[in-house]
Every structure is written in C-alpha cells, then in structure tokens.
Amino acid sequence: MKRIVLLRHGESLWNRENRFTGWTDVDLTDRGEAEAARAAELLRTEGFRFGCAFASYLKRAVRTLDIVLDGLDRDWIPVRKSWRLNEKHYGALQGLDKAETAAQYGEEQVLLWRRSYDTAPEPLAAEDPRNPRHDVRYRDVPAAELPCTESLRDTVARALPYWHCEILPALTRCDDVLVVAHGNSLRGIVKHLKGLSDEEIVRLNIPTAAPWVFEFDEGLSLRRDYLPGDTEQLAARMAETAGVGTRK
User: How would you write 92-141 as a 3-class SS string?
Assistant: First the structure.
C-alpha cells in the first residue's frame, strides 16, 4: 500500500483576520503552529514514515511542513517546492476583508469568487506591486504562466500537471508522500482524484492542518481516502471553514 497525505497549512495571520490571501506571503499564527504540531502527532500515531514531501512557495505552507516533519523526526527527507501548489490567486481581492466584501457585493458573489469553478476575481494590474511578476521567487516562471487572478479551473490547470509529473510518480520511490499546500490547490487535486463535478467542488471544505489520506495500490490506482482523527471535530472544523467569508 502506498499513501499520499494532502495537508492544508495551519491557520495563517490573514485566515485569522478573515482576509483574502491568495499569493500574499503571510506567516502562521500561534494557533496555526499548534495545528501543525497536532497534525504531526496524528500522523505519527497513524504510522506514517514519509520518504519525500512537496510544498508550495508560500511561507504558511513551508512553515507547516517544517513543523510536521520536525514532529515526525523526518526533517532530513527530500522536499520539493513549486509555485504550482500555491493558493488560488485572488487578484484584486487580495488583502480585503471577506466579511466586508460580502456585505458590499453579497454573500453569493463572494461564494462564487471563493468556491466556484469558473469565476475569477478582477485581475491585478501589471504595475500593481502585488503582481507576482515583481516577486523574485517567480523570476524563472514564464511571464505568460504567472496569474494576475484565477478561477478554481485555472488553479487546477496549473496544479494537475505537477501532480501527474512529480507528486504521483514519487510513490514509485516512497511509500508515504506528504503534500502541504492550500485550500484551493488541494481542492483541485481532490476534485480530480474523487471525480467531483464542478457543482460538488463548491461544497467541499478543507479545514486547516487536517491530514487527508489517499491510499494507492502498487499500480498507483486510488483505492480509498479518509481523514483520520475525531469525526465530530473534523465536521466542526469543516463547518467553520464553510462559514468563512460571510457577513459578520
């Protein structure tokens, strides 16, 4: 049996402040660090021995990965980072308060921006300092591939090639693989793995730092998936995630 664990980063500063984060690089809160440590404890209890790991370029994912690997005494394993695992780019919404945006534009519109498959927010202008073209970490990414805004469809389009070419093949050399990324980049991968429709993906909520296990056979065909841990706590955290972005 081979396993890939998908893990959303722990709570970030802008998660706590209820802001659209996207590609903005913010750190974890103390709660987020504690969430990552609890994820490590749960994964240790479940017997995971990761041979390699993947993360996005964003600090909140990298810090979560570091805490988890330290908690598992697996700091030494190979880690690969890619911009393709970054969060969905929220364009001009980045930095805005979600509840205030919902009050201004309506909760239905904010839900479309946050969760729908095809709707992208207003893009950033080329000269906007938030545009990733101005960030040194993306200097080797072709300009045509750098987003100024994204729908979930766009996020899936950039993440799935990395899944197929790098992450899934890693199971040929590692029985356990860890992927630490973001709510929307992971939703895209889950959509593909579970065959979810464009409508079903709108209702999928991935809580922070809750490991999602996918088991594969030797031929790398998916056999089952599950979220270990207390089911009532997981349900409560999913409900909390679903409620983010509504008017206060």
Answer: HHCCCEHHHHHHHHCHHHHHHHHHCCCCCCCCCCCCCCCCHHHCHHHCCC
Beta strands across the sheet bearing 79-81: 79-81, 52-55, 176-181, 2-8, 212-216, 222-226
Instruction: Report how far residue 227's alpha carbon sits from residue 43's, in angstroms, rounded to the nearest whole number.
Output: 11
Burial 64-84 (b: 16+ CB within 10 A, else e): bbbbbbebbebeebebebbbb
What is the distance between the alpha carbons of residues 219 and 209, in angstroms, rounded to a whole number?
29
User: Using CA atoms, how far apart are residues 211 and 6, in angstroms rounded to an integer?
Assistant: 6
- Report residue 234 as tokens: 């997981």
Q: Is the pTM of this model over 0.85?
A: yes
The residues annotated as belonging to the active site are 9, 87
Per the CB < 8 A criterion, the answer to whether 182 and 59 are in contact is no
d(CA 56, CA 71): 20
Q: What is the pLDDT of residues 164-190, one digit of tens each?
A: 999 999 999 999 999 999 999 999 999
Question: Rounded CA gap, 175 and 130, in Å?
Answer: 39
